[in-house]
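G., before I forget:
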Amino acid sequence: GAVVSQHPSWVICKSGTSVKIECRSLDFQATTMFWYRQFPKQSLMLMATSNEGSKATYEQGVEKDKFLINHASLTLSTLTVTSAHPEDSSFYICSASWGGLANEQFFGPGTRLTVL
Amino acid sequence: GEDVEQSLFLSVREGDSSVINCTYTDSSSTYLYWYKQEPGAGLQLLTYIFSNMDMKQDQRLTVLLNKKDKHLSLRIADTQTGDSAIYFCAERALAAGNKLTFGGGTRVLVKP
């Protein structure tokens, strides 16, 4: 149980284009989803927290107009990187929480974005 | 604020025990977690411990928590080559709401 998927697993795009990444909780309803960014050989940096049906809460320094998050249902959240630039190239990981006692976060497999 | 630190690297021989250490600063921590990340993959939740517990054992994994010293450790018994990965500790603190604060990760290399 507690499986989270991400799509696509990798994407290469041209500078200036927008890229959408999907995060789905496959076998549970996620009250909260999180989006992280991970640079090579570094830890995870939380970008934003989203609850179904409400606006995402962005961490300090994360541009909300550049990284659009939509949490449309209890099983789906999307991250759109708008007008992507090479510095946006990174590994993006989502996680989902069903709000259990320990509030465990279950992570997706990640999406590697390369912007040319 | 929250700060979680881990040593960068651990090398261990197959069959030996591995001990990965983590320190944190936020005294309002409620839960502490250990995650495993294999190359190019997401994070797999290994185990977690509630802050009022001292120890938790789950098969080959033993978590020890010293709340006074704000020190967390993960012991892997009979380490296998498949245990080679990066291990992250994370804390969930009342002050941070539902968010996790991650350590920098410990790269574990298991040698045959």
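The first strand of chain A starts at residue 4 and ends at 7. The mean pLDDT of chain A is 92.

More on Monday.
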